[in-house]
Amino acid sequence: MSHAPAQPLRLSAHRPLTGRVTVPGDKSISHRALMLSALAVGESRVEGLLEGEDVLATAAAMRAMGATIARSEDGRWTIHGVGVGGLLQPQAALDMGNSGTSTRLLMGLVASHAVIATFTGDASLSKRPMGRVIEPLSKMGAAFTASPGAKNSQTLPLMVRGLVPAVPIEYRLPVASAQVKSAVLLAGLNTPGITRVIEPVPTRDHSERMLRGFGAELTVEEAGGERIISITGEAELKPQHIVVPGDPSSAGFPVVAALIVPGSDIVVENVGLNPTRAGLYQVLRAMGADITFEKERLVGGEPVADLRVKASTLSGIEPDPSVVPSMVDEFPILFVACALAQGRSVLRGLEELRVKESDRIAVMAEGLRAIGAAVEEVEDGLIIDGTGGERLAGGATVATHLDHRIAMSFAVASLACRAPVTVDDRAPIATSFPIFIPMMEGLGAEHSEGATA
Ligand SMILES: O=C(O)C1=C[C@@H](OP(=O)(O)O)[C@@H](O)[C@H](O)C1
Ligand SMILES: C=C(OP(=O)(O)O)C(=O)O
User: Fold this and answer.
1) How confident is the model at residue 358 (pLDDT cuts 50, 70, 90)?
2) So what's the pLDDT on residue 56?
3) Which atom of ligand 2 is least distant from the CA of 98?
4) Distance between CA atoms of residues 383 and 381, nearest Å
5) Is 126 annotated as a binding residue?
6) Residues ≥6 apart with Cβ < 8 Å to 33
């Protein structure tokens, strides 16, 4: 991706956004569906799998370690697993592309298998911290080796040698990270005895839900605000039929677009609203957003609704930091909403945003300022003085730094600018939301002249 010529993107809206759209499947659930199906004995089927580059990296890695994974023409996926303990030695390095989730969760799986795997990634992923999984997985017995001469021993490329049998641990998460939690639980799957993770702050619980769904023995206790998750190892997973709900993180882009383009009225169908993921919608509603949840239902054991969204006058907000884990990937698009709201927004407790695909605090601050927003960057977040619904100047080119959420956030911001914003490279969008541009066009957004290259 980093070697291809950059493909700029410019979106604009000359009329209200209208219509009904469906966002692709949830990225977090899609990764886990492939991994657990690949460890079950027999054939699992997955509907609604996100066919984004990050998830395809997980599929390729699971194939390289022995699973048979096929997509049928109707978009359903079938996976024949190898059984817990049955992962095979991959014959080449596992290329994780841009995907932190694939890397950290798969390191967990490899940690307790008789496998040596080298993990590589793109320029963005190769800067992201892996110490957070190296620490607990080393305690379980895995060995991590950086390339000879590497400046940093905690970034990709890294070679991981699993240990069989691995050692069960009790691990208190030092950062609120579902990826670290999941890495330890997945390592625990093939580890004798009970592996325990203590979560001081709840994070997305898709791993717990799905591990149980596949038949693993997993308990969750709540004590003094903490969650204690225990998994009994050497589990046998039974194949499942999984229906993946739409991704609430992806839905954030059309939702905010409809809120900020005057007169808009749209429906985003089939959006997953697991409480550990739905913080954005809670915060937007508290800002005055007109969002109604229609046809609330359960899909694949996860709460889902159709979101009806009408353009709204938004007020600035200071969300409680406890909401952060439930919307950690949605802050870039929330910053855009805040830049157009009435009054000041104080968004803090966001230090984790600095270690995502880009430093999302710094990159959003720079881009928002370039398009005319009043933004102050602080160590753990942004303070934004909104325009009160006035359009931003726009006109600038913003750098995406191989970060899909930055690209989509500024493509949406462009809809509320006097002159369109040029997003320097649209390619990263394919990691999580390959149909983002046609979907926005379907709602009435347009490519500006000369920007369809
Ligand atoms: O477990 C997951 O699927 C994810 C967890 C979050 O990362 P952290 O665990 O690093 O916060 C999130 O940012 C990422 O997009 C997906
Ligand atoms: C942080 C993200 O993903 P990952 O960590 O899997 O790269 C994201 O999708 O915003």
Assistant:
1) very high
2) 98
3) 7
4) 7
5) no
6) 44, 46, 49, 210, 242, 244
Number of residues that this document lists for the chain: 453
Q: Which of 411, 39, 85 has its CA nearest to residue 239?
A: 39
Tell me: do 20 and 42 sit in the same domain: no
Ligand-binding annotation for 405, yes or no, is: yes
Final residue of a structural domain among 197, 219, 243:
243
The CB of 329 under 6 Å from ligand 1? The reply is: yes
Q: Which two tokens stand for residue 148?
A: 């000879």
Residue 165, preceding bond cis, omega within 30 degrees? yes
Return mean pLDDT, the chain: 96
One domain for residues 311 and 237 = no
| Test site for ligand 1: of 26, 182, 328, most ligand atoms within 8 A of the Cβ | 328
209 and 87 both lie in a single domain:
yes
Ligand 1 pocket, residue 102 CB under 6 Å:
no
Atom of ligand 2 nearest to the CA of 431: 9
The response to whether residue 208 sits with its C-beta less than 6 Å from ligand 1 reads: no
Q: Which residues, including other chains, have CB under 8 Å from residue 333's CB and lie 6 or more apart?
A: 252, 253, 256, 280, 405, 408, 409, 412
CATH code (residue 275): 3.65.10.10
Same domain, 60 and 19: no
Cα separation, 227 vs 224, whole angstroms: 8
**Known catalytic residue at 26:** no
Q: What pLDDT does 453 receive?
A: 39
Q: Are residues 140 and 249 in the same domain?
A: no
Quick one: 445 exposed, middle or buried, by C-beta within 10 A (0-12, 13-18, 19+)?
Answer: buried
Q: Is 154 annotated to bind ligand?
A: no
Q: Please report the atom of ligand 2 found closest to the CA of residue 27.
A: 9
What is the pLDDT confidence band of residue 5, given thresholds at 50, 70 and 90?
A: confident
Domain end among 243, 259, 292: 243
- Say if 2 falls within a structural domain: no
Q: What mean pLDDT is predicted for residues 415-433?
A: 98
**Is the domain of 111 the same as that of 33?**
yes
Please work out whether the CB of residue 99 comes within 6 Å of at least one atom of ligand 2: yes
177 CB near ligand 1 (under 6 Å)? yes
Which ligand sits nearest to residue 121's alpha carbon?
2
Per-residue pLDDT tens digits for 237-291: 999 999 999 999 999 999 999 999 999 999 999 999 999 999 999 999 999 999 9
Q: Do both 223 and 290 map to the same domain?
A: no
Q: How far is the CA of 328 from the centre of ligand 1 (A)?
A: 8
- The model's pLDDT over 333-354, given as tens digits with 9 standing for 90+, comes to 999 999 999 999 999 999 999 9
Ligand 2 atom, smallest distance to 99 CA: 7
Residue 212, marked binder = no
Q: Is the CB of 100 under 6 A from ligand 2?
A: yes
Range of the domain at 261: 11-25+245-447
Token reading at 313: 């006058």
In this structure, are 284 and 193 located in the same domain? no
Do the annotations mark residue 360 as ligand-binding? yes
pLDDT computed for residue 429 by the predictor? 98
pLDDT of residue 3: 60
